[in-house]
Specification:
The chain is α+β, with helices and mostly antiparallel strands and 699 residues long. It contains 23 helices and 20 strands. The strands form five sheets. The chain has a seven-stranded mixed beta sheet with strand order 3-2-1-4-7-6-5. Strands 10-18-19-11-20 form a five-stranded antiparallel beta sheet. α19 crosses α20. It is globular and about 75 Å long.
Length: 699
């Protein structure tokens, strides 16, 4: 017979046992039914979006005290949003006893509403034991607006004083000067956006000025004069600039240009900063924002509002926004407690690039960089660039020449796909002589890969022009690792490696991937389409909704521009070799990270090319960046892509779909046309794609 003490000990053990959570799929269903995003749930539980993703796909489980809070939240949601078809015990009881039972449950066991920060007021809970009559939601509800910014992140100001915001909001702006506009924006407009990371900063409000609004505020309709056009800013003696300075506001080093930032030093925790974008000064580049500058103000607000919601509130060109997004998702500092004073002070945020700029290793730098000029470095440089290769015409066989079509396949945001789970260096480089190659360490390796044999009908995976290496050269880790993957021994002579490393770009990749996929879905290109339906949807997606098509173009430009800006070169005629240019003062001036992304993307492309040759016997005619041209018996990729007997695409080769890294049809031409271009030394892929920029390094 057990003693009372033993029984109580057993019961206490049960009470102290960790709560059991519902299955991962049910957790995701409850969150979506409540209209809460993974990012907002992560903020509420003081964790990361990736942790929430892991909980919802069963990869990991939360620990106390977060576990208890998550359990309470799920219980509250389960009461309000029961699974479709679920029937409670009270509902199946006889009618005579159902009412009393329900009444008792309502008064004693009804769960209390669960408050999620930023989620708006909680709705009354569905009583336990009662069956909800609300139909299962077909789509997650739109997240509630941040109460601090009730009118969204931005507004487009017209000449009549109407400020058009997101969701059809129109505000009355009485400002007659730029200074009045800044003060109205900060005090009365209700514009802004919450931070994207708990250690980050809220996004400053953006005011977009139409040409009429700019003139009304005393600004020129366009930047006139040679000097102003060259510098893209107003001179310091312009009346508007003087007004701003006289009112004790400041301008950033960019001055008053197409993207002007006007600010004062923060008072306590409150920032005082407004971002202006002037449409008639070409703030919205036609290449990145096709057709947006010519739209009506309400439509411009819609385009920029969707971009702000899915990516970030624009703070400059898409290249600038891409770089700002990296910092917003990986803030350089976090609050830490000083052990001596007990005060909370800014400290380094693990996984970020920190607050101080970092010089690259000499082979990672550009020839004009002070590290190179001052040291007299002559040991060569990394040449990790995207493919620009065309096959020698003499390597075409008779069968290929008889095929009637040349079909271009473009990988969806290939460089974004390469950023996924990409481990990059976070600390300064250290030099090593004769190191043993380790594919897990990010860095630059001096190694001879000229002995690696590659089919001449394919480009070399080690050089951008596809030519075989002729001797030792500097390569990024992924390039050297691919040589090992091909079965060759690699013996580095030197290396510059980084001891501290991490997947710095992961949250950047996740946010932009979701933005890209969601925007394509808005245009009718969804993941559930088969390949033929996908090609048809891509054929017409730009005509479905010009506004959303512009958002899609901006997202793609954000990816390429953001990566390119990691190695921004000096600009301006006054620059002298060896001097430091402004971009070097940023912690995000990291050419080694750019090289890692491009190296991985190029290796991924070569792997697909090799697999395609193995499965189909087809070899590419040309490759430009993320576009590859194949000879084809028909005018569709369906005529040559490898499919299994079941009809499913073969893994390893090119596959069609809307997800980053998958392919889409880029163009179809005559095979004779392609061969003619090749004989003239031109790349057919460049003509199929229209010669778009490759990883533009931004403004």
């Amino acid at each position: 017979m057990p003693s009372e003490e033993e029984l109580f000990a057993s019961v206490d053990a049960l009470l102290n046992e960790e709560p059991h959570l519902p299955p991962p799929a049910e957790r995701a269903r409850l969150r979506e039914a409540a209209g809460i995003t993974q990012a907002r749930l992560a903020t509420a539980l003081k964790t990361t979006t990736q942790s929430v993703k892991n909980w919802e796909n069963g990869r990991s489980e939360p620990k106390s005290p977060r576990l208890d809070a998550y359990q309470r939240l799920l219980n509250g949601w389960a009461a309000k949003y029961p699974a479709p078809g679920a029937v409670s015990a009270a509902a199946t009881a006889p009618a005579a006893s159902a009412a009393p039972a329900a009444s008792k449950l309502e008064t004693t066991n009804a769960p209390q509403p669960v408050d999620v920060p930023g989620a708006g007021p909680a709705r009354p809970a569905t009583p336990a034991g009662a069956t909800s009559r609300r139909p299962a939601p077909k789509k997650a509800a739109k997240p509630a607006a941040d109460p601090r910014f009730p009118h969204g992140p931005l507004a487009v100001l017209d000449g009549d004083g109407s400020a058009y915001g997101v969701d059809g909001i129109v505000l009355d702006c009485p400002a007659a000067t730029v200074v009045e506009l800044v003060e109205w924006t900060l005090r009365e407009s209700g514009l802004g956006a919450p931070r994207l990371h708990r250690n980050g900063k809220d996004s400053d409000p953006l005011i977009v000025l139409t040409a009429a609004a700019a003139v009304k505020l005393g600004l020129p309709e366009r930047l006139e004069g040679h000097e102003q056009r060259r510098s893209l800013r107003l001179p310091e003696d312009h009346p508007v600039v003087k007004q701003v300075v006289k009112a004790k506001w400041r301008l950033t080093q960019r001055g008053f240009g197409p993207w002007a930032r006007i600010y004062r030093k923060a008072q306590g925790r409150e920032r005082q900063c407004v971002q202006l974008a002037i449409l008639s000064w070409d703030a919205l580049d036609e290449r990145s924002w096709p057709g947006v500058a010519e739209m009506e103000p309400a439509d411009i607000a819609r385009v920029l509002g969707v971009y702000a919601q899915r990516v970030i509130t624009p703070r400059g060109s898409t290249a600038v926004s891409g770089l700002e997004l990296m910092t917003a998702l990986r803030p350089p500092t976090r609050a830490v407690q000083d052990p001596q004073t007990g005060n909370w002070v800014p400290g380094h945020n693990p996984g970020s690039l920190g607050t101080e700029p970092m010089d690259p290793a000499p082979p990672e730098a550009t020839p004009e960089h002070p590290v190179v000029v001052e040291s007299g470095w002559s040991g060569g440089f990394l040449n990790e660039e995207a493919y620009q290769w065309v096959r020698d015409v003499s390597l075409l066989n008779d069968e290929e020449c008889t095929l009637p079509y040349a079909v271009g396949l473009d990988l969806n945001t290939a460089f974004l796909a390469a950023a996924a789970r990409l481990v990059v260096g976070l600390s300064a480089p250290d030099h090593f002589t004769g190191p043993t190659f380790n594919p897990k360490i990010p860095g630059s390796w001096l190694v001879d890969l000229s002995h690696v044999e590659v089919d001449p009908r394919l480009p070399s995976p080690f050089t951008p022009d596809g030519a075989r290496p002729t001797g030792p050269a500097w390569y990024q880790t992924h390039t050297v690792a691919y040589a090992q993957e091909l079965g060759y021994n690699v013996q580095p002579l030197e290396a510059y490696l980084r001891r501290d490393c991490g997947a710095y770009l992961d949250p950047w990749h996740d946010r932009l991937k979701n933005a890209y996929v969601d925007t394509l879905a808005d245009l009718g290109v969804t993941k559930d389409l088969n390949d033929a339906e996908f090609l048809a949807a891509m054929e017409r997606h730009k005509d479905t909704d010009p506004a959303m098509a512009a958002v899609l173009a901006a997202i793609k430009a954000t990816v390429k521009g953001g990566i390119g800006k990691l190695r921004e070169r000096p600009q301006g005629r006054k620059y002298k070799e060896g001097e430091r240019w402004p971009a070097l003062q940023r912690p995000t001036w990291r050419p080694d990270i750019r090289a890692a992304v491009i190296s991985k993307a190029r290796v991924n492309m070569h792997r697909k090319l090799r697999n395609m040759a193995t499965m189909t016997g087809l070899y590419p005619l040309a490759v430009l960046s993320d576009c590859v041209v194949y000879p084809s018996p028909g005018d569709s990729p369906l005529d040559f892509l490898p499919y299994a007997a079941s009809g499913k695409p073969q893994p390893g080769g090119f596959r069609l779909g809307p997800t980053p890294g998958l392919a889409k049809l880029e163009g179809v031409q005559s095979m004779l046309w392609a061969v003619d271009l090749m004989e003239q030394g031109h790349n057919p892929a460049r003509h199929i794609k229209g010669g778009d920029a490759v990883l533009d390094e931004g403004e």
